[in-house]
Amino acid sequence: MPGAYPRTSTLALTNRTLEYIEMIANNGITKSATGSGPLKSALNTFAGEITHEAVAGAVT
Asked: Do 56 and 50 meet the contact criterion of CB atoms below 8 Å apart?
């Protein structure tokens, strides 16, 4: 229950996402999105295209 422990949940989220934020800041979005498996799999859209199969199926 993140609402019960807001500080702890914020620290946990920051610890898991900071590496991706730094990657994007250092390499740019295009290089990061195409070079990182976890980041690439987390994208729903990229460069104006739907990249996630479930999202694509939901809108067609």
From this structure: yes
Residue whose structure tokens are 């199969």: 53
**CA–CA distance, 33 with 50 (Å, rounded to integer):** 13
Render pLDDT for 12-39 as a digit per residue (tens, 0 to 9).
999 999 999 999 999 999 999 888 888 8
CA torsion, ordered 42, 31, 14, 54, to nearest 10 deg: -10
* pTM for the predicted model, two decimal places: 0.68
Structure tokens, 27 = 């390499």
Cα Rg of the chain, angstroms: 15
